[in-house]
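yo

u said u wanted the structure for the complex thing, so here. seqs first:
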Amino acid sequence: MSDTQPVEGRAQNRQTAESMAARQREISISEFFSKNRHLLGFDNPQKALLTAVKEAVDNSLDACEDAGILPTIKIGIQQLAEDRFRIAVEDNGPGIVKAQIPKIFGKLLYGSKFHTLKQARGQQGIGISAAGMYGLLTTGKSLSVTSRTGEEKPAHYYEIQIDTRKNAPQIITDKVVEWDPPHGTRVEIELIGTYKKGRHSVDDYVRQTAIANPHCEIFYTAPDTEEVLHLQRGSDQLPPEPREIKPHPYGVELGVLIRMMKESSARQLSAALQRDFSRVSGRVAVEICKAAGLNPNANPHTIVVHEAERLFRAINGVKIMSPATNCLSPIGEEQILAGLRKEIAADYFTAITRAPAVYRGNPFQVEVGLAYGGRLQSDDLIDLLRFANRVPLQYQQSGCAITKAALGIDWRSYGLSQSKGALPVGPVVLFVHIASVWVPFTSESKEAVAAYPEIMRELRLALQECGRKLATHIRAHRRAVDEEKKKSYIEKYIPHIGIALREILGLSEKAEKQVVVTLKDVLERSRSREHIED
Amino acid sequence: MSDTQPVEGRAQNRQTAESMAARQREISISEFFSKNRHLLGFDNPQKALLTAVKEAVDNSLDACEDAGILPTIKIGIQQLAEDRFRIAVEDNGPGIVKAQIPKIFGKLLYGSKFHTLKQARGQQGIGISAAGMYGLLTTGKSLSVTSRTGEEKPAHYYEIQIDTRKNAPQIITDKVVEWDPPHGTRVEIELIGTYKKGRHSVDDYVRQTAIANPHCEIFYTAPDTEEVLHLQRGSDQLPPEPREIKPHPYGVELGVLIRMMKESSARQLSAALQRDFSRVSGRVAVEICKAAGLNPNANPHTIVVHEAERLFRAINGVKIMSPATNCLSPIGEEQILAGLRKEIAADYFTAITRAPAVYRGNPFQVEVGLAYGGRLQSDDLIDLLRFANRVPLQYQQSGCAITKAALGIDWRSYGLSQSKGALPVGPVVLFVHIASVWVPFTSESKEAVAAYPEIMRELRLALQECGRKLATHIRAHRRAVDEEKKKSYIEKYIPHIGIALREILGLSEKAEKQVVVTLKDVLERSRSREHIED
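structre next:
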């Protein structure tokens, strides 16, 4: 305790610049997030359990896909006491080299994905260490990791605690163990949590993960059962591998441009532009320099602010090819349909994948799937399933761009009923996926997507396209119902007309039958003509 | 570029554990937030301008109040180009000592408030450096600071840029300058922004700040005017000075308890409990140790997990006084009324300040003010003004505990109309303030409060209390209106009855007048009897 720190209960002196200075100090990122754990999705025990499972599964799926391995994930939740659980997530991925294990699991802001422009579930290097930190905070127990990188390699077992003051791992146990799998990683965390069924549950997360990742096999053991739920693969195809790209010049900001030029490994301005950016050819680089009134052979390291400003304006004035989009790996219409059909008992399905677009220089892509009718409830609000880079988003629905876009659509014109400012009512499951090299989440807990205008636009267009398909289906369905109704009217009333005619005109029974047949025929024909002319 | 980094356009090799390891590295907190700037409130140019002003003003007000100085704040926004602004915020605070300036303005997660349990506007040590970082990113320009700590001291002028890779300040200019004010700080930032009027504007922020801080004098120059808006003090009283407290044992988590004991400066368990926690007397400390089956004289540094678990359970089983609440500085009913009356043209005002309560060990306090009628619009949704530690919250209304609590109230029982799931409709401005030693914001941009159950409960109770007061007023007001209406009916129709009676009964004009007076009198009396029996 420094001598400027006031003693509780005693009258405090007002602060001066000097006494304030004595109290100023650095805050470690781990301290920051341990006090702000709700930012990471650990704000209540139910969410904490879900978040911990989710972070571990995200890492497992990313690792498997990066290594070209069809993922098989085992998720187990064991209840130790009323509010205490031990979660275990095991994958058949490539494993983690020994030296990296402590940092990956015991240090916040550490990883391989942050500086990479390529679609991945993880992006910040926070998630799994934060889950371990939450476990440590609430139970005092270490996170444990077992990992093996190949059949000829030993399996390593670690017990790790994060030192929050230093944001650094503290290794409690480090040993070689016997472990059967030829390669893979197993993470275990003990934590205070709550297990519940329903909307925000781990069960629901597992089901939604299976829908959006049909190539993944999952074994799931919930805490209240002995049974292992086996979710089989719907597809043996790995998703197309996303490629890493460099930043696109249109998305760069002035300050970033200055830094990139100063740090470039190139010695000439035009070479720096070519090397550090995507889609900049030699010709385009020279064109940019010319438009900026700068020498293409100038040293990029000595660029000053007003020159950079000219360069910045020139970039945005020169025509540059759109960014490559093979950094993205959308689910695809077929796979979305397969996922929905597998899990949802509806009778109409449709899906669309939009072409890639760009926000702030980051390529992204929107996909929408829709299931209608069947056993879905007609008088409830529609069920909106949100996904980002194949990960289900289960919280903060109202703050999410996906919800905002869905609320902004006039669903009544597509045949659903809708109150102002609410989701429509109808037997619909709406599946919305955003894939991007950098999903702009509204918080580190990655629960909702920020409403960038470009993203809102793509969402709107995709939802409208699906809406139109739905409207066509509903109209056709209504017409079929209407026709059925008309047909039944004809069949119901014509015999009575026949009887009346017989009585009035004194027809024979045979003549009556003929009249009835003729009448039916005429009416059927007029009905179908009506239909054709519709 | 490392050799494992794939080259764009060329087929990528699938990753192995080794190739992944080569790509893993540390991420600086500045890099993290520069890529995630929307987390800090810099997601679009309009919000960026507001956030930058807000962060600077928060710091100024905190500094003045800590030093016991009645704040006078000058806010200027100068438009340099269509989307480029230079903001300047100057205070009459205690100033900042020279050595601290670069870190306070050029390093994220640096400050005096994070480790302190005491109500303040700032708490994370991020805001103002982030504003400077945003300015640098978008314009390449340094943040500039002028500060002076006393009349005999020189004024220091700095130009600072944040080095995002290192999260460290880079000093561009450092000199002594002539500056008139005897003490205070002036910050200037050039940034890309948008200036708009209305709900989310700087203008609105200034107005709301004046309402919640009647002791503060503000001079504000908007970019579209030459005029200086002078918001005068409504009060010459500084708010009561909040005192710093230590954590309360009931709010501590097991992992934190372990760390506190290991790091305690005390050598005996019971002394550690007394020294490091609030409200633990010698007697209580011994009682806790006894309940845990631990020796009060044991060394706290050698505590192991299962002993700590026993200690943790014992703490929650022993009766300990509630935390001291002089760490809070509520606005108070009188000042809320003064603020509302000063700025809002209504004809009914009410306010209530709840007693302090505790969430996760953190004292907090809820206050609600309400203005009704007058020139406020009757057919719009009510205007909800949210505040945390006297700072207006202008974004993320739907994600905020305050909004959720307001939506959860049945306002129809208090005389307003309300659709399901919406705010009520009526001529109402609703002012809600949460004061806490640690406001649990839903994001670093501090725009919305997380819905902890204890906070929701206090909000609900405060809103209901204000609602009941409003209901009483509305009922009384309606009765007056109804009476007025009845009275006007009487005055309107009785003369006609008089005329009719004269014609039917052949009365004289005088008799007619008398009949009219008598009738009026009888009806007035029956009306007021009705009223009494109501």
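The mean pLDDT of chain A is 89. The longest strand of chain A covers residues 362-372.
cya
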